[in-house]
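hi!! sorry for the late reply, been swamped w classes. u asked for the two structures so here they r. pasted raw, havent cleaned anything up. first the sequence of the first protein and right below it the tokens
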Amino acid sequence: MLFKGISKEFSLLNEDQYNTIGDFWDEMASLYGLENLQGLGYKWADSKIFYAIGLKNDDIKYYNLCLELPDENWTVVNGKTENLKEIYDEIYKLGPLKYEIETFDENGKCQIKYYR
């Protein structure tokens, strides 16, 4: 699977990524619509994460990330966006991730696919 998107670096300090990545989502959703987007978390370090947003079914214009991802062996978790922190707390109990792909809808639902 090939992921093309706009990538930025975000701080993980004080769990600030929930706000700053949320702002990134809001910005991109205003341009492309929330339900057309998917977010990719990758390349974690001690205090930062790289995160990209791309389109589910098309290539986003002016992307700065093109990354080949595995086609198989992803784990899928469905939940509510309001519970995102708790969902991730459960996911990370089993160890670090190599990749995560998030999608959200207008009804407050989210899906997280992750790969270790």
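now the second protein. again sequence first, tokens right under
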Amino acid sequence: MNRTFMNGYYQGVVEVAPASLSAAQVEELAVTMTIQHLRHAGVAITTIHDFLVDDIGANSRLVTKFINLTADELETAQARIMAIAFAK
């Protein structure tokens, strides 16, 4: 998978995130969704990590926190963030 596509996916999540979320919450949502999407596409974990940290500039602690979670755990994290967005 090329970096242009991966960058576009991340940016797409950021652009459509609910406006009621903070910048940190948007980054967390984008990181979790990108990790899940790229793992589904068969991209190696190290490639995902390096892309998010080196190319995108995502918080490395945040990426490390989510990189090894299961799909269910990533979806739970995403749902928690979206619940915050719509509770406001």
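hope this helps!! also noticed smth abt the second:
The mean pLDDT is 94.
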